[in-house]
Structures are given as C-alpha cells and as structure tokens.
Amino acid sequence: MAVAERVAPAATAPPPAAVPERSPWPRRFVWVAGIAALLVVGLRFAPGFPDRFVLGVGSVFDGIDTWVIDNQRTHWLFTGLLNPLKDAIQATVDGLVTLLSRMTWVGLVTTAGALAGLVAGWRMGLLAAAGVASFGVLGVWERSLQTFALVAISVVISLAIGVPLGIWAGRRAGVDRALRPFLDAMQTIPAYSYLLPFVLFLGTGYPPALAATVVFALPPAVRLTALGVRSVPATTLEVATSFGSTSRQVLRKVQLPMATPSIMLGVNQTIMMALGMVVIAAVVAAEGLGREVLDALKLLRVGAAFNAGLAIVIMAIVLDRVTTAWSCRERERRGRATRIAGRTVSRRALVVAAVAASAIGVLVGREVIRQQEWPESLTFSVAAPVDAIVEWSQRNLGDAAEAIGAALTAGLLDPLRTLLTREPWWVIAALAALAGWKVKGPRLAVFSFVCVFLLGALGTWNLSMHTLSIVLVAVVLSLVVAIPVGILASRSDAVDRAIKPLLDAMQTMPAFVYLVPVLLLFSIGTPVPAVIASVVYALPVGIRLTNLGIRQVPATIVEAAEAYGATSTQRLRKVELPLARPSILLGVNQTIMMVLSVVIIGGMIGAGGLGFEALVALSKKRIGQGVVVGLSILLLAIVLDRITQAMGSAPRSLRGPVGLSGMGRWPKLRAIRGSVSSERTDGTNGKGEA
Amino acid sequence: MKHARWVALAAVLVLGLAACGDVQEEGAEPTGAGGGATDVAQCGSEPIRLAVNPWTGAAVNAWVAKTIMEQEMGCTVELVDMDEFAQFPALAAGDVDATLEVWPSGHAKDYKQYIEGGKGVIDGGELGVVGNIGWFTPTYVVEEHPEVASWEGLKGNEDVFDNKFLGADPTFTIYDEEIIENLGLDLEVTYSGSEAASLAALDKAYEAREPILMYFWSPHWAQAKYDLTEVQLPEYDEQCAEAAATKDGEGYDCDYAPDVLYKAFSDQLETKDPAAFAFLSNMRYTNEDQNEIALAVDDGGQSLEEAAQAWVDANRDVWEAWLPKA
Predict the structure, then answer these.
(1) Is A395 within 8 Å of chain B by CB?
(2) Residues of A in contact with B208 (CB under 8 A)
(3) What percent of chain A clears pLDDT 90, i.e. is strictly above it?
C-alpha cells in the first residue's frame, strides 16, 4: 500500500511524542507564517485587478444576436440547416410524447415493469412499474411523459455522439488530450451562459433544451467509454494482435467487450446528467416537469415545486437502479439461463412473456379501461404536506436560522469576501501557484497562476472573488458535516442504509426546488441561502466518498491494527482515515465542483457574484457578457479542480471520468475501479454497494 | 444478440397498437366545435400559439383569449409557457404567434431591435392594463406608523424599516438607489435577486408582522394575498423621464413611470390567420377585469380555465367588440 507511507501531515493530528522528528508543526508553521505575511504585504498594494490588463473578450460576441435577428429569415444556415433540424427535433419529441400517452397509463406501467424486469430482474421490474405509476399518483402524468421523452432522445443523441468519440479518444491519446478541455468546459460552464445563443439559433421549446442537455450529458459518455477502452491491459491487446487480429477486430472483439461495464456506467451517468437539466430545459420553454418547478417557484408554491421535483427524483432513481442492475446482470449472466422457481427459463421465453405483458397492458388500457391519462381520482399530491412542513419550520425555526445566517455572514462570509477583494490580484495568483507547487510541482504552479491572471483579464475579478468566497465557506461547511457523517455511516450498516435514499434524493432533487424554502428560512439578500442550498447539494458526495474510502480499507490491515491493541479511535485516526485519504480528497474535489454549480444558481436568490451576472446577461440579452462569465466560471473551476485533484493524487484511472462533473453518483467509482483492477488486487470486488 | 430480433418485433407490436390514434375517452367532447354567431369571422385550421409568461396576469390574458377564440371563432389555441427573455426570439422565429402582456420597462431593447427594426415582430397595441412599479409596505406598518405612507413622512422615520430597503431583481427597471439619494433618505438597499426571493421576504415579514419596505408592482397576485400600501413618491415628471432615458438614472427622484402593457405579434400572424389577428389586435380590457380573474385564481383557488370562463360568461359586453366581423 503505497498510500500508507505517504500519509500527509494534514491527515494525522499531533503525533505521539515518541516520534518527534516527524512532527509536522514547524514546517506547517512556516507555511502559515509565509501566507500570512504575503496577505499582509498584499494589503499595502492596490486591490483587485488593474483595468489596463482587461481584455474586451465579450464585445467580440455582441454582434451575434443582431446578425441572427437580421438573417434568420433568409440565410442558408437557418433555412437550409437549423430550421429543418429544429423542426425534426420538435417533431421527434412530440411524436414520442404522443406515442407514450397513446399507450395509456395502464399500458405504460406494465410496459415499464416488463421491460425493466426483462433486462434487470423482477425486483427492478416492480420498481419501474411503481415509479411510472407514481408520476400519475403525484398528478404530473403528462409533464413526466414530456420530460421522459426529452431525456430519452437527448440520451440517445449523446450516446450516438459520445461513444464513438470515446472509442476514438480511448485509442488515441492525442485525441483524448485534445478533447479534455472541451469536456471540462461543457460540464462546468453553467447553462445560463449558452442558453441565449441556443435560443437565437434553435428557437424555443424542445430543440434548444435538447441541445443544452446534450452539451451537459455528453462528457460522461465520452470519458467513460474512453476509460473503458484505454484500460484494456496492454498484454491482452498484444495477444490479440499476435494472433493476427486487425485493428478493427481488436476493437470489436477485445476492446469493446472488455469496455462494456465502463460504457454502461457511461450510459447511466449520461442519463443522470440529462435529468439534471430538466429545469433548465423549462427556462427555454420546453414542456415537462421543469416547467412545473419553475412556475410553482414564481408563485411561491414550495409544495407544488417539491411535488414535481419528487417526480424527477423518482425518475432518476428508477433509471439509475435499472441501468445499474442491467449492466451488472449483463456482466454476470453471459450464457447462463435464468431460473425461476427452480426451473430454467430460456431467454426467449422471458422476452415473449415481457412482450405479451406489455401488449396486454396496452390493449387493456386502450380497449377496456379506455383512459389515456392517469385518472384524477387516483392522485395524491405531496404539495399540501410539504407546504405545512415549510410553514411550520418557518414559524419555529425561523429565528434560529436567522441567527445562524447572521453569524455566518458576519463571521465567515463578509470577512473572507473583504479579504479576497481587498488583496491585489497577484497575491491570490501567488497563493494559487503556491498551492499548485506544493501539491504537484512547478507546472501546476504556473498553470494556476496563469488561470488566475486570465480571470482578471476577463474583467470579472471582483465578481469571481465574491463567488470564490462563497464557495470556500460552503465547502468548509459541507466537509465539516460530511466527513463525520461519512465516518458514522462507514461504522454502521444501519446508518448507511438509512441515509442512502436521502442522499439519492438530495443529489437528484433539482436545487431550484429547495432554493425558495431555504430563502424562507435564512436571511434574504445575503449569500447565506445559497451557501445552505449548496451544502445540501454537495453533502452526499462527501459523505459517500468518506464512507467508501473507509469501507475499502482492507480487512486484514484493520485486523492487524486491532491485534496490536489499537483502540477504536486510534484505528480510525491512524489506519482508516489515512488509508481513506485518496477517496476523501476525491470527495473534497467533488464537493467543490458541486458547491460551485449551486453557488452559480444561487445568483438568482441574492448570492450575487458570477452566477448573478450570468442571469443578468441572459435577461438583458448580452451574449458577450454571458460568454465572459461562463469562461470565468470555467477558469475558477479548473484551478480549484486541478489543485484538489493533485492533492488526492488518485490513480489516473480515477481522475479521468470524475474530473469536472457537476452531478454524479460517485459510489459507482468502485465499479470503475473494479473494472480496472479488482480482478487482480484486493478483496474489493467490482460490485460496490450497488 | 439473438434476442434483439424478438425485442424489435415486440416493440413494433406494442407501438403499432399504440399508434392507432388517441383513445376516445367516454364523455369526451369532439373538439373544435365553434358555436359562435354566424357573422363572426372564423379562424383557419392552423392552431394559434400564444406565449404565456410565468405570472398570473399573463396566463389570465391568454386564457381569456383562448376561451373566446375557441368558443366564438372556432379557433384552436395552444398556450406555450415561456420565460420573458425567450419570447421575442420566439415571435421572430414564428415559434409562437403572439404574446399578450409585454412590460415596456423591461423590453426597451427588444422593442427597438425586433419591432422598430422590423425583424419579425409587430406591436399589437395596448392591452389596456397599466402596470405600476413602486415602493410598497404591508398595510399593518402604515396603520402603526401612518407617516411612512409618503416619502416626506418616511424621511426622518427610516428607522421604522431599520433603515433597510429591499430591492428586487436588478435586471428589472430600478432607480431605487437614485431615488433614495436624491430625496435624501437614509435607507440602505439590498437586492433580493429575483421575484421569488422578494416574495419570500415579503411572506416572511408578513408572517411575523415585521416592517418591510420593498420594490414591488401591480398587477401581481401577491397584491391580493397581502394587503400592501404604496408609499407615495414625488410624481413622475419630465426631468425623471429624461434622467431615465439619457442619463442612466442620474438625478432620478420621482415615482416610477406607469407601464402601459402592450401586445406583440409575429409579423406572419396576419397572413396566417386574419381573423385571429384581428381579434387579438382588438383585445383590450382593464386592470379591474384582469384582477377579477387573477383573484379568483390566486385567492379563490379556481383553475384558470374556470375563472376565465366565468368572466367571459359575465362580460359579453366587454369582449363582444373584440370579435372581427366576417
């Protein structure tokens, strides 16, 4: 275990006196003193970023809207290409919605159940049927069909582009390197920055929504396909080549089959990302659940927004579980027949049964029950109870929340923001460079310095520092909660099981849904609500990766520690936490990325900073400003990501796919890692906790 | 994979079943039955698409138009929900045919670019409803401190509001900081960031019966739910008009200008459907009309459809004049 020897000072609290020579204190003191000196010196110089270095990047783009408005009736780009494309997308999604609704609710519930049952086992079949039925029960039947149709088509398109690209990148390292910055950008730049161009070029409704969704959902498909192809052992490839396989044969018979688990994980992630864009889709007038969420929020109907959000969560959970179970079964089955009630049933018989079940369902729905839409009498909206809960907390927790908010503002947010905006730009850049140097080396140091400089050159210095201060506070709060809870969950299976659905819901519920209830509790007009909302969103990933890291510590090592008489606390501090360090640091990295994404959305609830600027650009239709803000967010994210990634110095196979992705389900990492190395190394098999 | 064939066959079978058309539900009426008078111009067969912005007033206009057009003119009207920023591009591209409630203060640039520039959008005339932006405070505050009902009384008594003023979404038309400075008021502006956030702040203050002074406007559903009083600011005058138009608000010291809400159409609507075009151009009603329906929806819990129908049934004299003659 190479990791064990490299335990960093930070992970071990004051060591016992027996080994004074390893004490980290003096060195750490030098660092702290140096940084403090730098900050103090910095205060004597002009704050911020000098105007003369600011490049007018935005104005380059400002003519685009006028050009589009002038030419959209005549130019070939519109008449010959974009308009037909737009009509085709609209017609396809509309067609799928019509088809789904004509299958009737009875038909859809049985079809979903039968299909999921066929590919992923009867438990998943029941889950899928119940999930589809719940859309009806929640009273959002049609909206759910629309969302599902949009997500399904977006995912198909993402995979159609992403898998071939991924294969290419997997086989050619150069392509991989060339694609990475684009993939990072696609996942980091908030949709608000590019919605306006999409609306100008593709109009409103499903087409721009689909384009935005594909932008966000494509990266995991590319990354995980590339990872799968790349991680086929070189020896295997050599064997194939030495037997005289052509390049195409190697791809089809060796690389793709061996990459299948990773590609399946890519499919799963692509679906999750696509669902993450549901609310954004509604902003450009696409029909669906997102519309319900946005409308409800404008009218301050928290319960109604939650009701629609719950449908999104259910759709995400069902699709996640079914695709995961599907890929696991595909891997396991391989030529084995299924057994039901002790008898072997052929694959063909199962298919026939599933088809028959869906056909009967559709027939019954159309001819016997004669109802397309879910009957109103069978609905139960959770809106009223949720509203009651919100009202109760407003009345009873309002004062406490207000006090917490005030303390947070006065104690952390305001001082940090003042400090960051008061320092000259080069102090911040130097700090970033120092951090880069310490965790990796001179190259990362230079890279970080340049990125911070560019941030200033874009002309968004103060906004970026504002956003950074909120992100830092939110990240610290998230970790302070997440790591202890993660430790707790790693110690107790019961806790683990109990919080799992809650974590799933926190990760898939669109942040928009809880922006308003958070607002009702915490101080409006300050960044506090955004901090709270981003902590809610980022907690699961921190908890999960801490939990995962500790659980992955090999049992033999833990036993050895116990045999030497380590107490439970010692075991945790000296063995488990140090060994879980890479996983926990990955959690830190992911927490930062997720916090950043919500802090950006937080712009609409008074958090200010870059997110707010993105909204202003959208509503005032300033394309250039949108581009500048998008790039600033990208730079900020890249610096934070690269430094924290290097800190964790996780194996490259781990870094690739998880790099800069906004929303993910990182426990599945274990599956990635499993596919890469589990067969050979320790006892952790590839199935993880799925 | 061998079973792929089966799955394909299965899919075809199920989809084939489903593709036979909509289920005729029991009791469902055949659509598009125009029961109107014979001398009213009738719509063509293509659906008319109306943009609906996410606030009640916009939805009320659209439902009133839809109800009358479908019942009197045999039109098919589709309502398309969309955010404000998207509606002008949508009109220009012909994705929607009309939007019925544009707030001029928020769309000066669009008006210039799309309407005056002749880029696919035309001015559809006034809606008749006049929007009013201003400073509002819950009436319970004014009852306790009657002096704050006007800016003269507010001056010197800003501590009633803890010297705080809640600004709204800074993308709206706002001159609060200028007004405060130029009237010599001792107030500090914080921006909520969005309409939802402002509403949350209002709801919170109202619940606790705490004082709050904020940027708000009417018509808005919250005006019915919360009893608000507008703080009287100096009357809007030439000088303020000039400050707003040419000096980026510098020197602005009066009330906000009234927003005369207007309709905007795609320039293809007239050729696409002259009857619908004529009707929508003629459509015009008052704040009271719109409020009556909005109240029934926001406060009375009726659906938009019911509330619009009730108003249409009771106000034939108002809308009869909108109908185009054949």
Answers:
(1) yes
(2) 398
(3) 40
The rounded distance, in Å, linking the Cα atoms of A414 and A527 is 10
Identify the architecture of domain A395-650 in CATH: Orthogonal Bundle (1.10)
Closest CA to A606 of A538, A522, A535, A508: A522
Closest CA to B319 of B49, B43, B70, B65: B65
At A538-562, the pLDDT tens digits run: 999 999 999 989 998 888 988 999 8
Residue whose tokens read 């080396």: A441
* A80-373: CATH number: 1.10.3720.10
Give the residue range(s) of CATH 3.40.190.100 domains in chain B. Answer: 132-257
Query: Is beta strand B228-231 parallel, antiparallel or unpaired with respect to B98-102?
Result: unpaired
Amino acid identity, position A576: E
CATH class of B132-257: alpha beta
| Chain B contacts in chain A segment 47-86 (CB below 8 A) | 65-66, 69-70, 72-73
Q: Which residue has the tokens 């923001």?
A: A417
| Residue B262: strand, helix, or coil | strand
CA distance A47 to chain B (A): 24
Confidence of residue A640 (pLDDT cuts 50, 70, 90): very high
B38-130+260-322 is classed CATH 3.40.190.10: yes
Best residue in B49, B81, B162 to probe A by mutation, most A CBs within 10 Å?
B81
Within 10 angstroms of residue A63's Cβ, the number of other Cβ atoms is 11
- Return the residue of B nearest to A402 by Cα: B204
Q: Quick check: A608 contacting B, CB < 8 Å?
A: yes
In sequence order, what are the residues at sequence separation of 6 or more whose Cβ sits closer than 8 angstroms to the Cβ of residue A288?
Answer: A143, A144, A146, A147, A150, A278, A281, A282
CA angle A111, A112, A115 (to 5 degrees): 80
For residues A144 and A653, give the distance between their C-alpha atoms in angstroms, rounded to a whole number: 36
Q: Which of A270, A264, A178, A268 is nearest to A219 (CA)?
A: A270
Interface probe for A, chosen from B2, B23, B210, B226 (most Cβ of A below 10 Å), is: B23
8 Å CB contact of B195 and A298: yes
Are the beta carbons of B171 and A620 separated by less than 8 Å? yes
Per-residue CA distances from A307 to A202, A213, A285, A393, B106 (Å): 30, 22, 20, 18, 32
Q: How many CB pairs under 8 A join A and B?
A: 188
Q: Which of B86, B166, B208 sits opposite A285 (nearest CB)?
A: B86
Q: Nearest by CB to B89, which of A203, A606, A615?
A: A203
Q: What is the residue type of B75?
A: C
Q: Answer yes or no: are the C-beta atoms of A542 and A577 closer than 8 Å.
A: no
Is the Cα dihedral A483, A484, A485, A490 positive or negative? positive
Tell me where in chain B the CATH 3.40.190.10 domain(s) lie: 38-130+260-322
Q: Domain spans of chain A?
A: 80-373, 395-650
Asked if residues A168 and A175 have their Cβ atoms less than 8 Å apart, the reply is yes
Q: What is the pLDDT of residues B72-101, one digit of tens each?
A: 999 999 999 888 888 999 999 888 999 999
Report how far residue A27's alpha carbon sits from residue A42's, in angstroms, rounded to the nearest whole number.
23
User: Which runs of consecutive H residues, i.e. helices, occur in B94-183?
Assistant: 108-110, 139-144, 151-154, 176-182
- ipTM for the whole predicted complex goes beyond 0.85: no
Interface test with A, best of B53, B78, B83 (most A CBs within 10 A): B83
Cross-strand partners of B216: B134
Closest residue by Cα to residue A472 from A549, A419, A546 = A419
Distance from CA of B279 to the nearest CA of A (A): 25
A479: amino acid identity, one letter: L
Residues 6+ positions from A512 with CB-CB distance below 8 Å:
A279, A293, A294, A297, A305, A309, A601
Question: What pLDDT, on a 0 to 100 scale, did the predictor assign at position B30?
Answer: 45
The tally of CA atoms less than 13 A away on the side-chain side of residue A297 is 29
